[in-house]
Specification:
The structure holds two protein chains of two kinds. By secondary structure, chain A is an all-alpha fold. Chain A contains 13 helices and no strands. Chain B contains two helices and 31 strands. In chain B, about 5% of the residues lie in helices and about 40% in strands. The mean pLDDT of chain B is about 90. At the A-B interface, helix 2, helix 3, helix 8, helix 9 and helix 12 of A face strand 6 and helix 2 of B. Chain B: GO terms for molecular function: protein phosphatase regulator activity.
Chain lengths: ~300, ~425
């Protein structure tokens, strides 16, 4: 999509210009640098937008599975590309560094299991898969098997989500909500990068039973659980800061997300991404004709506010 | 932009019956409204070709699934007529979870002159009856009754997107996001699962079923489309569970136009066979494709519906329009019709390769006026009468259209309005 070796635009960020004839394919480590920062910003925006869409999926009465799957696949594509660029590692490490261990609600054993898995899997993060981070996954109350789906209610959204760690950014596999049931305080023994958390809740061992629970779940909903994109603490690294600088931290906060969705998001950046992704520069479109359906958002707000 | 004041009135499906005499619509509120083609009458020639309301009934009610704490919408996703076998009409209507078989019958006579009860239904005292009479049938005002004859429930965990009556007229299939079931019209307490693409581990789910249809002549053949732009043709004689397809149709991706949205816009929203069964037609976000069943590696024809939207995909992703599911319809496979935004719909002539854009709106169509072709200007200078892409109203979408099986009459659903257009004769 953005072929390596493409000449960088002058307007691109203030990275050190590569000297002279270095127009050929860039080395992997240099790929991140040569990539236009505006492109990566657009891509980041698309990623954020997609994750928020998946979050909102949960708000709806019966999320559309097709839509959820398509959005999740889009997120996966972005993740893969960012992994190749090396930007994915940077971002997740930043999130890992930013988070507070005490807030993490992950089973100790799960984390410890990650150590082995991570060691075996190597450096590359697991492909993105969506997690059923719930929102109060009260699956322990409904102990059934087969096609029964567990209850995921809106009401439990707020209390639980702030406690969930930023590990959620990549989250776990589809329908692996149950892994978060074990809301034990982590001892701080096993500290991993979140990206490796995605391996965590894989159905193994004692997870299998709860897997069975979720197996036939209402996947759309359960699958696309809430993503608590942790409010990033001020990163110490200036390079990381640059990565996040243009992204409004409040964007990640669930409440502001929901209210924020009511207003027109910035249209400018997306046009650039569109023109990058399609056949060439086109006229920038105005947002007026592409307003979201406010009826649906009103409905969502009503549910949340409880009015 | 328009907001629909009564969301329950939004039309969610449109379908002519086999003769074209009846036109059924389903809406978001779970209602079915059936229109009937008025007979031509010498006394009232101006009524020729008009469709008037024939019957209205509540097909589905909203339900609440207590186990999952979820509402089940009453919106009618699809209506399919059964071939007519007697005086009554039968149709299948479905919401997300339950399919119902409805019988629509006329009653225009009433029996009068009973012995044991009088005209208002009260029982007569037997000792007062001094003579016997034979009840006679007297004409009455036409009454159209709709009654549910079968309810096919509890067979779908996911949302039903398609139903299709088989050519044997005894069975039909219903498809949801991950499974397809085969039913017998007489049997409601069980169905056969013929396709199941649900992965053992839901985290591996990357593709869902988007539409399915039975072959028009071969009752053992059906197709289903997916969110990745593929179509699979299955033969029910091959296995009980048709997880392995007989044919696999997919157009190779054009690497030069690849973007993050490529997969989404390739997702097929509708699939229809041609009358002969030799071809099929699919609708994805930007185009309609015609496939020859004998050629799996690419479509034989591609028609661009609104290519000018390709540069707006990110905005359309943001406002969710990119997930809109448009249907397509053909008239004996000579012409193809499908909807777009701004209440526009498109028609393609397969023989002449001409296409036309028309608008379904009150402002642009007075009764009996000829529709004026519309044009969207794609950049550069905008000519008079052209509309620019940025002025398109994306809330006015035409997702559901239908073509009369015999005549040049089309039905177009624009949000909560139904438009019926026909070719002018002389």
């Amino acid at each position: 999509m953005f072929p390596k070796g493409t000449k960088r635009k002058f307007s691109d960020s203030g990275e050190e210009p590569v000297s002279g004839g270095d127009q050929g394919p860039a080395a992997p480590s240099a790929a991140a640098r040569t990539l236009s920062s505006s492109y990566s910003l657009q891509r980041q925006s698309l990623l954020d937008m997609s994750l928020i869409k998946l979050q909102l999926c949960h708000m709806l009465v019966e999320p559309n599975l097709c839509r959820s799957v398509l959005i999740a696949n889009t997120v996966r594509q972005i993740q893969e590309e960012m992994t190749q660029d090396g930007t994915w590692q940077i971002m997740t490490q930043a999130l890992a560094a930013a988070q507070c261990p005490a807030d993490r609600l992950v089973a100790t054993e799960v984390l410890c299991r990650q150590t082995d898995a991570a060691a075996q899997a190597g450096q590359s993060p697991k492909p993105f898969s969506v997690v059923g981070l719930e929102e109060g996954y009260h699956s322990e109350e409904v102990v059934m098997e087969g096609d029964v789906e567990t209850e995921v209610t809106m009401s439990t959204l707020s209390p639980v989500s702030p406690q969930l760690s930023s590990a959620s950014y990549l989250a776990g596999p589809f329908g692996m909500g149950p892994c978060w049931e074990e809301e034990e305080e982590e001892d701080g023994e096993c500290e991993e990068d979140e990206e490796e958390d995605s391996e965590e809740c894989v159905s193994e061992g004692e997870e299998a039973e709860r897997d069975h629970l979720s197996a036939d779940s209402r996947t759309g909903e359960q699958v696309f659980g809430t993503f608590e994109i942790k409010h990033p603490a001020p990163p110490p690294d200036p390079a990381l800061e640059e990565l996040f600088s243009d992204v409004d931290p409040s964007y990640y906060d669930l409440d502001t997300v929901l209210t924020g969705m009511q207003s027109t998001p910035k249209m400018g950046p997306y046009d650039l991404l569109e023109s990058l992704s399609s056949h060439g520069p086109t006229a920038l479109s105005s947002s007026s004709s592409c307003r979201s359906d406010l009826n649906e958002l009103d409905h969502i707000m009503e549910i949340i506010v409880g009015s | 932009s328009d907001f629909c004041l009564f969301p329950a009135d939004i039309i969610s499906t449109v379908e002519f019956n086999y003769s074209g005499e009846l036109l059924a619509t389903g809406d978001k509120g779970g209602r079915v409204v059936i229109f009937q083609h008025e007979q031509e009458s010498k006394n009232r020639p101006h009524l020729r070709g008009e469709y008037n309301v024939y019957s209205t009934f509540q097909s589905h009610e909203p339900e609440f699934d207590y186990l999952k704490s979820l509402e089940i919408e009453e919106k009618i996703n699809k209506i399919r007529w059964l071939p007519q076998q007697n005086a009554a009409h039968f149709l299948l209507s479905t919401n997300d979870k339950t399919i119902k078989l409805w019988k629509i019958s006329e009653r225009d006579k009433r029996a009068e002159g009973y012995n044991l009860k009088d005209e208002d239904g009260r029982l007569r005292d037997p000792f007062r009856i001094t003579s016997l009479r034979v009840p006679v049938l007297m004409p009455m005002d036409l009454m159209v009754e709709a009654s549910p004859r079968r309810i096919f429930a509890n067979a779908h965990t996911y949302h039903i997107n398609s139903i299709s009556v088989n050519s044997d007229h005894e069975t039909y299939l219903s498809a949801d996001d991950l499974r397809i079931n085969l039913w017998h019209l007489e049997i409601t307490d069980r169905s056969f699962n013929i396709v199941d693409i649900k992965p053992a581990n839901m985290e591996e789910l990357t593709e869902v079923i988007t539409a399915a249809e039975c072959h028009p002549h071969q009752c053992n053949v059906f197709v289903y489309s997916s969110s990745k732009g593929t179509i699979r043709l299955c033969d029910m004689r091959a296995a009980a569970l048709c997880d392995r397809h007989s044919k696999f149709f997919e157009e190779p991706e054009d690497p030069s136009s690849r973007s993050f949205f490529s997969e989404i816009i390739s997702s097929i929203s509708d699939v229809k066979f041609s009358h002969s069964g030799r071809y099929m037609m699919t609708r994805d976000y930007l185009s309609v494709k015609v496939w020859d069943l004998n050629m799996e590696n690419r479509p034989v024809e591609t028609y661009q519906v609104h290519e000018y939207l390709r540069s707006k995909l990110c905005s359309l992703y943001e406002n969710d329009c990119i997930f809109d599911k448009f249907e397509c319809y053909s008239y004996w496979f000579f012409a193809i019709m499908t909807g777009s935004y701004n209440n526009f719909f498109r028609m393609f002539d397969r023989n002449t390769r001409r296409d036309i854009t028309l608008e379904a709106s009150r402002e642009s169509s007075k009764p009996r006026a000829t529709l004026k072709p519309r044009k969207v200007s794609t950049g550069g200078k905008r000519k008079k009468d052209e509309i620019s892409v940025d002025s398109l109203d994306f809330n006015k979408k035409i997702l559901h259209t239908a073509w009369h099986p015999k005549d040049n009459v089309i039905a177009v659903a624009a949000t909560n309005n139904l438009y019926i257009f026909q070719d002018k004769i002389n």
